[in-house]
Amino acid sequence: MRWSLGVVGDLLVTAGLVLLLFVAWQLWWTDVTANRVQDQTIARLDREFSRPAPASANEKPKAVPFGEAFAILRIPRLGADYARPVLEGTSLDILDEGVGHYKDTALPGVVGNFAVAGHRTTYGRPFHDIDKLQPGDKVVVETKTTYFVYVVRSHKIVLPTAVEVIAPVPDKPGAKPTERWMTMTACHPKYSAAQRYIVFAQLEKSYPRAKGLPAGTLAVPKGA
């Protein structure tokens, strides 16, 4: 009996160690690897964006192939160096590589709702501190030709089934859009998928990338 209890005890200790290692891998190592991949993607996008745009670049934006990185997201409130790649799609493998753009929602700067999702924990956790965003904060989406500057308007917490938040007019399914919105979604609370934390932002201004952003646009807000 003592031998059996000893074996069971050893197995429980081993199982506990395995579980701790798995948690460490989820919370730490996935961040390390994902951040490396995302930094490489941003560097590649910077190079691509620096090349002269084709004459057709000013035409109506075209659909982005699934899985392709097409923009860089910058949020001063989340840090002076905060930059995350935006990829087309919201499958788990895409979210592991950056911020995902909901299929069939508007592209940056287009009338409607440019809706994106990101992890709050693991895999680089791009929206880990999404709850720190405040009304008036700037959210900059950089594409090959344009900087789109959105301003945070509000936030809410909803159930995962509340898909109306990414409708062309947020929270008004079926309504015809006339404004340019951006919606950011993430799991809530941290380390749980029971709810979703939603941030709504509205396009304030757009600037040609070749001319750069006005001074101070990416300044970290006081108190951040």
Strand-helix topology:
Blueprint: H1 2-50, E1 69-74, E2 84-88, H2 92-95, E3 99-101, E4 112-117, E5 138-142, E6 146-158, E7 180-188, E8 195-208
Parallel strand pairs: 2-3, 4-7
Antiparallel strand pairs: 1-2, 1-5, 3-4, 5-6, 6-8, 7-8
The CATH topology, please?
A: Sortase, Chain: A
Gross geometry? globular
CATH architecture annotation: Beta Barrel
What do we call the CATH homologous superfamily?
Sortase
Low-confidence spans: pLDDT under 50, at least 5 residues?
Answer: 7-25
Radius of gyration: 20 Å
Give a short account of the largest sheet. Answer: 8 strands, mixed, barrel
Structural category is alpha+beta
CATH domain class name: Mainly Beta
What is the CA–CA distance across the termini?
60 Å
Domains (count) = 1
Total E-strand runs: 8
Count of helical regions:
2
Organism: Knoellia koreensis
Transmembrane segments: 7-29
GO molecular function, one term: hydrolase activity
Active site: 119, 187
Structural overview:
This protein is α+β, with helices and mostly antiparallel strands and 224 residues long. The chain has a single domain, classed as Sortase, Chain: A, CATH 2.40.260.10. The chain is 24% helix and 27% strand. The chain is built from 2 helices and 8 strands, in the order αββαββββββ. Strands 1-2-3-4-7-8-6-5 form an 8-stranded mixed barrel. It is globular and about 45 Å long.
